[in-house]
Fold this protein.
Amino acid sequence: MGSEKSKILVFGGRGYLGKYMVKASVSMGHPTYVYVRPVDHSKLQLHHEFESMGVTVFQGELDEEEKMVAAVKQVDVVISTLAVPQHLEQFKIIHAIKQAPNIKRFVPSEFGNEVDRVSGLPPFQALMENKKRIRRATESAGIPFTYVSANSFAAYFVDFLLRPHQTLQHVSIYGNGDAKVVLNFEEDVAAYTIKASVDPRTCNKVIIYRPPGNIVSQLDLISSWEKKTGTTLQRTHISEQEIIKLSESLPFPENIPVAILHNIFIKGDQMSFELNANDLEASELYPEYKYTSVDKLLDICLVNPPKPKLAAFA
């Protein structure tokens, strides 16, 4: 599979990560397909963009089983980038794949923490439990898989923490700011995922994205940004106790983001375990790929900062 140009189908191809995934698949020469909801006017431009790239677009709902099975039977690899509110909808994808023995790999929508090795506050733990349910269902169905632990999206969190599209004078720090996190540029997450989806070495394995140049703390990030912009930011620390209280008092789904902030930036779960000889790390597995380091991304933000993005949790 590693040297072949596999046919890749992306679910959620019009979403935040999905668009990167489709472009990465096309750029690597794979015949690329997307399964999307029927196109409305707001998505028409992206629909035309996909078609101009040579992408085959299947239109249908996730509960239209015959359409899904027909699409899945035409490809080798299925990658899901469905958003959090749709994670359990992936049971329908698994059901479709079970009827298509041609599928050589399924990559379910994760792209965050390594859910079998960490834990979080209840609102975030519930999200991770859903991901684990999809893992166990995939394994129970006997579907070849690759689970992707991409840790955190760099452009998203750089925008959230530093607001590079604004003239920032004040910054919030969660906890003491020392916890190490892993911030991977979204284009790189997609590129590594396409590579892993057709790599025999990653079959029925977890691949973790932990490039050395993307391991930083909040304080590292803020200091680098101050040096690059020639500014000194006023800092306010938000304590762990405050975050925990918010996770308990805020209604669903507003309680999820604060629980995620606690896990990533205070607890430091993404770097809470050592990789061993049996672990697969993306930058070691694909040393030829030149990823965008956090430092390089900050340079990009000086001239062309990413557009603000809101995550959907319900």
User: Anything to note?
Assistant: Residues 122-140 form the longest helix (19 residues).
